Amino acid sequence: MRVFVTGHYCLACGKTNASVLGAAIADNQASYVSSKYLPPNIPFKEPTRLTHHELIETLEFWKE
User: Fold this and answer.
1) How far is it, in rounded angstroms, from Cα 52 to Cα 54?
2) 6, 9, 40, 57: least buried by Cβ within 10 Å?
3) What is the distance between the alpha carbons of residues 58 and 46, in angstroms, rounded to a whole number?
4) Burial level of 58, CB count in 10 A (0-12/13-18/19+)?
């Protein structure tokens, strides 16, 4: 998931190498990503802090 998010962050900001601070995004999610791109009832947080269920639900949501 981290690779997916980082890759799309780089595309969005026009940089070839950038790091995503998951904690910063989690603290101010609306500034970084529209809620329509996130599954309902799953908080956006650092990928290592997601439960297995939250990770699968998020990836399934993005797959659709």
Assistant:
1) 6
2) 40
3) 13
4) buried
